[in-house]
Structure formats: structure tokens, C-alpha cells
């Protein structure tokens, strides 16, 4: 078997690996990109693109069903799941084709297959066409991502269940979707199927939904979900699953009592696990933590010099935009243009429920743990002119402001266009714009952004 040597090998065609491969090839490096499934990684094929496309369809269904609040009556609408899935698939195919086109760069070789280490900086690739390849490189970058994690619930192995990936291809509507998990993916998909017409019940082990968020944010999210008719169980353990003639049954323990939940379909959304076992990292000497995530330093380099990890496979924060930013860190360091580090970088994120939850910086829990002195600015969305005019008054926004300096430490925006408003606060934090300046800044009326005036005016109350 012929051995090929490259300047760099990227394992995984994700949102960090793809732009890094292109840039290295354009810089004159002989570069290999190995992908075992689809170009584009989780974001394009299983995550952001397909879910947000279907969430848009669910939003349209919800508007049709609730048009009376805007003075509209929509009679006789129906949900066509096959058409919704087909629309999603078209969008994904377009994105994937765009990725493939952008990777057609001189000096970049694509390997369609699964890679595994056979030694230091040496990989065996089992190609999908039945062939094999052995490739080596001076620098190797791992961007293999994660996959849905399945909890050890007795009986779950013998009943049909769905992940956030497989549920998106369901051509028929579940009559009652039972969702194991109460964080971002679970809530986005749970609300989506509720708006399509399914009964939905969400079961979360932690005492609150979105466990990493502040209690008031979690309470606001739960209120929004329950207002749409979604059943919520928090502090709840699923003890057993079984298939009966009436459907799927989950035996749960909550508030010291045993209950039985019956549904037609089960979504397992209890977390994700790194795709590292098949890589045989031990043969390359690359270290992982006890969960299988690759450990890296601030330059995203592993314990083996010249071997790097990008994106979710290195552990949190597990967001597409963080994966994309990771490639800048490695590229700058490999090309020797500057010394780049992930230290102190901003980590914004957004949960795409409706309304959205946009988050940046410290939560109140984190600020208290760090012993920081801060004030909290808060504003209900029902006091935002634009929200009133558009009948989107659910939720609230809040920001943490450092006492004395007026510096913004963090923000949570649970409301219409929450991610966009959060992004304005993110830029203010990066640019050192204070709460006082935002309170007096001129925004166009009547935008959601204008509400930042009143948000920081609340500090005077």
C-alpha cells in the first residue's frame, strides 16, 4: 500500500476543519482532509442547518394557528411533514454542495473514508470505495466532533428511539413525543414538534431546564414552554423504558413518587459524546480526559507536538462558531504569523427556541462564585415597544454590570431576536462600552435594540 506524506492532515470536515484545510492549501501546504461521512460536519448535515430550517416551518405553523392576535383568521391549514423534511433536505444539500465546491483547491486532497492512527503522525484510512490509504504528516488536526449520547436506562436498548439526527427525517408526525433531556437541543426540537401538532413531554434530571443557566432564565423558559402546552418534568429520573401494545412507556421517579408516561415516540437528547474511540489515539500517544475528549492547551495543541484538536471533540464550549474560531487559532500558529490563544475569548451562544435565548459573558451564578460586585439591569419584554407592536412580549432581558466601572460582565436575553440583542451587548463588552453609554446611546426607533436604553435605565430604580 502506497504511503503519502503531507504537510498537514485534517481529520473531519467540520466548521473548523474545512476553512483550515482551504487556507493551508492556499498557503502552499500539501494538505489532506479525511471525512468518514458527509462534507460539512454536524452543523450542516445534522445540526444547525437542518434544525433551523425545520424550526422556521414550525414558526410558520404557529403563526397560522395563532393569527387572531394579529387580526388574521387562517382556516384549514395543515402540516405536511414530508414537504417539511424535503425542504430541509434541499437546504442541507445546497449547503453541502457549497462546501464541496469551496474545498476544490489546489494542494488539497480529499479522502472519503474513516481514519485511525497506526503510530505517531501516521494514519490508516479505510476508503468507502473499498480501498485503503496510509498517510503521514508533519501536522495533524483532529476535528471529528461528537455524536448523541445514550443514557444507560434499562429497556432503552430494546425500544425504538430517536436522536436529534434521526428525528429530523421522520416523515410522519408523532402523536406524543417524549423527550429525554431538557437543555438546548431538547427544547428546540420539543417546541418544534409541539408547533407541528404533537403532544410533547420533556423530562429533565436536573432541578431546572437549561441547567447551566440562572434560575430566573430557566423559569422563564419553562413558562414559555408550558404556555404552548408542553408538559415539563424537572428533577426527574427515567428508570425504565418499555414497548407496549399502546406505545412506548417510560417509568419515571419525580418528587419522591413513581409515575408512568406513555407516548408514541422517544427523543433521546441527554448530551453528546466525543467521536474519539475509532481514532485509536493511544497509538499516537494523544491524551484524552475520562470522558474521551481530547485535552489541549491554549493554542489547541495536544500533548503530542504538532497534533491539534478543534471543535467539540476537545470538549466545551460545543458551538459551531467556537469550532470556526478554533481554526483561526491553529492557522495563525502554524503559519507563524502570530501567537494565538483561546485565553479570554468571548463565548456567545443562542438557543433557537421561540423566543430565542441569547447569552454572553458571565451568568449571575458565575459572578457570585467569582465574588464579583455587580448590579443587575433587567427589563421584561412586555415593556419593549417593538415587542408590544409585534405581539412578542414573552421573556425578559438582563445584564450584569460591574459596580464602579459600569463595565458589562454578561447578559441573558430571553425574547424575540434575543440572539441579535445579545450580539449588540457582546460588541459593547468587546469595545469597552459601558452601561452609562448604552443608556444614553441613540438607537433607531422602534427597534428591539432601542430597548437597551431602558434596560440600563433600570439600574437607577
Write a concise keyword list for the protein shown above.
3 domains, FAD/NAD(P)-binding domain, Enolase-like, domain 1, alpha/beta, five-stranded antiparallel β-sheet, 12 helices
Determine Rg (CA atoms, Å).
24 Å
Tell me the total number of β-strands: 20
Total separate domains: 3
Q: Using the alpha-carbon principal axes, give the shape.
A: globular
Percent of residues in beta strands? 25-35%
From the 3D coordinates, which CATH architecture of the largest domain would you assign?
3-Layer(bba) Sandwich
CATH topology of the largest domain: FAD/NAD(P)-binding domain
Measure the end-to-end span: 74 Å
| CATH homologous superfamily assignment of the largest domain | FAD/NAD(P)-binding domain
Largest sheet: 5 strands, mixed, barrel
* Count of helical stretches: 12
Helix content: 25-40%
Neighbour order of strands in the largest sheet: 1-2-3-4-5
Name of the level-1 CATH class of the largest domain: Alpha Beta
Strand pairing plus helix content: what structural class?
A: alpha/beta
Model regions low in confidence, pLDDT < 50 over at least 5 residues? none
Mean pLDDT: 95
Describe this structure as you would to a colleague.
- The relative contact order is 0.11.
- This protein has 461 residues and is α/β, with parallel strands linked by helices.
- Helices cover 29% and strands 27% of the residues.
- The chain folds into three domains: 3-146 and 273-335, FAD/NAD(P)-binding domain (3-Layer(bba) Sandwich); 156-270, FAD/NAD(P)-binding domain; 355-460, FAD/NAD-linked reductase, C-terminal dimerisation domain (Enolase-like, domain 1), CATH 3.30.390.30.
- The strands form five sheets. It has a five-stranded mixed barrel. Strands 16-17-20-19-18 form a five-stranded antiparallel β-sheet, with helices on both faces. It has a four-stranded parallel β-sheet with strand order 9-8-7-13, with helices on one face.
- The protein starts with a strand and ends with a helix.
- Helix 1 runs parallel beside helix 7 (320-335) and helix 3 (48-65) packs across helix 5.
Amino acid at each position: 500500500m502506497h504511503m503519502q506524506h503531507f504537510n498537514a492532515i485534517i481529520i473531519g470536515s467540520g466548521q473548523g476543519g474545512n476553512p483550515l484545510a482551504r487556507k493551508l492549501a492556499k498557503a502552499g501546504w500539501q494538505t489532506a482532509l479525511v471525512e468518514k461521512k458527509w462534507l460539512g460536519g454536524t452543523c450542516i448535515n445534522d445540526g444547525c442547518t437542518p434544525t433551523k430550517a425545520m424550526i422556521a416551518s414550525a414558526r410558520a405553523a404557529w403563526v397560522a394557528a395563532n393569527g387572531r392576535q394579529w387580526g388574521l383568521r387562517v382556516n384549514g391549514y395543515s402540516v405536511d411533514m414530508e414537504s417539511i423534511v424535503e425542504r430541509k433536505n434541499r437546504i442541507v444539500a445546497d449547503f453541502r454542495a457549497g462546501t464541496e465546491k469551496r474545498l476544490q483547491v489546489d494542494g488539497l486532497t480529499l479522502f472519503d473514508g474513516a481514519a485511525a492512527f497506526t503510530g505517531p503522525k501516521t494514519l490508516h484510512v479505510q476508503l468507502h470505495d473499498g480501498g485503503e490509504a496510509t498517510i503521514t504528516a508533519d501536522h495533524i488536526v483532529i476535528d471529528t466532533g461528537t455524536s448523541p449520547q445514550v443514557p444507560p436506562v434499562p429497556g432503552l436498548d430494546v425500544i425504538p428511539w430517536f436522536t436529534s439526527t434521526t428525528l429530523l427525517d421522520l416523515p410522519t408526525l408523532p402523536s406524543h413525543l417524549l423527550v429525554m433531556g431538557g437543555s438546548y437541543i431538547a427544547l428546540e426540537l420539543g417546541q418544534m414538534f409541539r408547533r407541528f401538532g404533537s403532544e410533547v413531554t420533556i423530562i429533565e434530571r436536573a432541578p431546572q431546564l437549561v441547567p447551566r443557566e440562572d434560575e430566573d432564565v430557566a423559569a422563564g423558559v419553562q413558562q414559555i414552554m408550558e404556555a404552548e402546552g408542553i408538559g415539563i418534568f424537572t428533577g426527574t429520573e427515567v428508570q425504565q423504558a418499555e414497548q407496549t401494545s399502546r406505545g412506548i412507556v417510560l417509568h419515571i421517579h419525580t418528587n419522591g413518587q413513581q409515575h408512568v408516561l406513555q407516548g408514541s415516540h422517544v427523543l433521546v437528547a441527554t448530551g453528546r459524546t466525543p467521536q474519539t474511540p475509532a481514532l485509536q489515539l493511544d497509538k499516537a500517544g494523544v491524551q484524552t480526559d475520562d470522558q474521551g475528549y481530547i485535552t489541549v492547551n491554549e493554542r489547541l495543541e495536544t500533548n503530542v507536538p504538532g497534533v491539534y484538536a478543534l471543535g467539540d471533540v476537545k470538549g466545551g464550549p460545543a458551538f459551531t462558531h467556537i469550532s470556526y474560531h478554533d481554526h483561526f487559532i491553529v492557522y495563525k500558529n502554524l503559519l507563524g504569523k502570530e501567537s494565538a490563544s483561546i485565553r479570554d475569548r468571548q463565548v456567545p451562544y443562542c438557543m433557537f427556541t421561540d423566543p430565542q435565548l441569547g447569552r454572553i459573558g458571565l451568568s449571575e451564578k458565575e459572578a457570585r462564585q467569582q465574588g464579583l460586585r455587580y448590579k443587575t439591569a433587567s427589563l421584561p419584554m412586555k415593556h419593549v415597544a417593538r415587542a408590544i407592536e409585534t405581539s412578542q412580549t414573552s421573556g425578559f432581558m438582563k445584564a450584569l454590570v460591574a459596580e464602579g466601572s459600569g463595565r458589562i460582565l454578561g447578559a441573558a436575553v430571553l425574547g424575540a431576536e434575543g440572539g441579535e440583542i445579545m450580539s449588540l451587548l457582546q460588541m459593547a463588552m468587546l469595545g469597552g462600552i459601558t452601561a452609562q453609554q448604552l443608556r444614553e446611546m441613540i438607537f433607531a426607533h422602534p427597534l428591539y435594540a432601542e430597548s437597551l436604553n431602558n434596560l440600563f435605565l433600570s439600574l437607577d430604580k
